[in-house]
Amino acid sequence: MHTIFLIIKREYLVRVRKKSFVIMTILGPLLIFGFYAIIGWAAVSSINQKKVAVVDESGHFVDQFKSDNETVFSYPKESLSEAKKKFIKQGYDALVFVPKDVIDKPKTVQIFAEKGVSMALQNNIERAISKEIETIKLQQAGITQKIIEDAKVNVDAQTISLGDEGEKSSNSIAMTIIGYFCAFMIYISVFIYGTQVMRGVMEEKNNRIVEVIISSVKPFQLMLGKIMGVALVGLTQFMLWILLTIGLFTVGGTLVGDKVQRGREAMQTSGTMAQPGQRIDTGKAKDGVVASVIKAVDTLNIPLIVACFLFYFLGGYLLYSALFGAIGAAVDNETETQQFMFPITLPIIGAIAVAQFVIREPDGALGFWTSIFPFTSPVVMMVRVPFGVPAWQLALSMVLLILGFIGTTWVAARIYRVGILMYGKKVSYRELSKWVFYKG
Amino acid sequence: MTNILEVHHIVKQYAEHRALDDVSLSVPQGSIFGLLGPNGAGKTSLIRIINQITAPDAGEVILGGEHLKPDHIRRIGYLPEERGLYKKMKVGEQLLYLAQLKGLTEKQAMDKLKTWFIKFDIKTWWNKHIEDLSKGMQQKVQFVATVMHEPDLIILDEPFSGFDPINANLIKDEILELRDKGKTIIFSTHRMESVEELCDYIALLNRSHKVLDGAKRAIKEQFKTHTYHIDYQGEIGTLPDAFTILDTTQQDDGFIRSNIRIPTDASVNELIRYLIDRITIRSFGENIPSMNDIFIQTVGENNE
Description:
The complex is a heterodimer of chains A (440) and B (304).
Chain A: H1 2-16, H2 19-45, E1 50-56, E2 71-74, H3 80-90, E3 94-98, E4 110-113, H4 119-140, H5 145-207, H6 210-214, H7 219-272, H8 288-299, H9 302-330, H10 334-358, H11 365-372, H12 377-384, H13 391-419, H14 429-436
Parallel strand pairs in A: 1-2, 1-3
Antiparallel strand pairs in A: 3-4
Chain B: E1 3-14, E2 17-28, E3 32-36, H1 43-50, E4 58-63, E5 66-67, E6 76-79, H2 91-101, H3 106-119, H4 135-147, E7 153-157, H5 165-180, E8 184-188, H6 192-198, E9 201-206, E10 209-215, H7 216-222, E11 227-234, E12 244-250, E13 256-261, H8 268-276, E14 279-286, H9 291-303
Parallel strand pairs in B: 3-8, 3-9, 6-7, 7-8
Antiparallel strand pairs in B: 1-2, 1-4, 4-5, 9-10, 11-13, 11-14, 12-13
Helix pairs in contact in B: 2-3
């Protein structure tokens, strides 16, 4: 047992000290951060204030529209034709005309703009006006302020249920994104770290050090030590990526935070503006898909997803890297690996393809079977986990994955111990299957 | 004399090929034991079984009086024919790693390595990468890796390949010194001159069978042809009936060489007495078979 730790230590240190590891570890988060920074910057810069003039003949709406970062409302006291004339000179983006008899003929409200106005702005204005008209009409019908206040409570309650529906749809977007991201990360890392195991085995074989080593340790220990060492390298890299990314976003966040904050406030106030006079409730504001997705993430079972990710990453990696190791032992050079790599990687390539269908129907038959089968489950189950998977399915899948990697490790070890001592011989599948049944 | 290693009736079967067929041999403690044989005779298969890299299909191996068990690898130092080191690792780091795999603690390994580095005068190599060393230098490091844990049994498979004559001599001296300290060395090679020089005992494998083994001196005795060579000037004429002239060749330097067989019951002195009045003798000696002759003769006969 002591020797296996020595092997793990060596495999780990040799890889972690490599320049390529350090570069990848630093570059990864920088790329992610850079990507987000560009998107964030683009999003924030696109918010430029629009000037909107409101010509209100009815007098009901003066100062009812509140200015914010997105839109500045002004209430020039002039006639529509005068305002129209000044439109370009004053630099207005839009002109809202509310006629005198708006209460009786609400459809007479007009919005003038040079290039047309955004849907959001038009909606906001329309809603504000209809709300105000409603209030006025209610009052005219003899409904007191108190009843309106009571009614508002009801409106609040309705908003909650509406909000829930909104959350549901944005939740499924969040689930899709997270599920697919996790699945893809597992897919990529099985390849990256599996290949590292294969290369490591081939290096030992080609350096001819392998016979020196296995006169001290069992071939199985050497193989397992290498697989575990590389697994730790993978986990280290993930951890560093997460930490560095958080670090970068914290530092980067304070640098551009001011601008982002303004952008966020803009979103919130424009959302609230839809219901003038109502209490500002940012929690229920429909502040765009991105924001609600971010919010929806909070409602997911993050600890379960993280735990599943780590389990399926390790399980999938162990299952495949043992086979990769066996390939490395069976061949003499890189070009010979091709013929064995393809059939072995076929299931996981298939899994990432199937994942795109499963994501649309997480509880379908295809999703069920591929998330149980150990060669595809690490990828497909990760797609399903954020949507919620029955506990028995998750347990079955995990048990099968554990059995799966014990199985592949057993087969791989038997190929490995023969292969590493076999030089200058081109092996066939027939040959490999014989090795599995060699004694001792 | 005790045997440090005994191999009893080992059989090793690979698919259609039987690599070892009922092979038994004994290696006395404190000897240099030559394991000889043509390519594919089964030497490496046997060595791998002793090193527990593979297991035999039948038979048993006894090391120091005990059945082979996992612990025994610490008592063996093995230099395989196919050998190498991690190219990207530093010399010191690598040797420490290999020593720890053999069960030494880091501190023990460090102490032992220091002595070897001083002995081989390679102190400056500690922080060098293996790939920056010449092939001969790498072989030295490899030799240190084989013996640094002070094993009782050292198995060297073609140890001199890749060494220049100076380094080969250095290793040869090391082997003799280790033997004098009571270690046992099994030594597998094709180079018969080093067998001649170093080995006390030999075993010859051919086609998966042991065809010959024993003390080198006894084997030579056994293969003696009872012939003598004589370099002379003059004319021998006809010898007494008991003696036979096998062949006569004219040498470049004006002398003639003849090989003469003497029957076992006759005396060499009798022959000399007869010759001494007839020819001018420059040299006279017994033809002792070389290991090379014995190897070729045995393997040749066996393959006929």
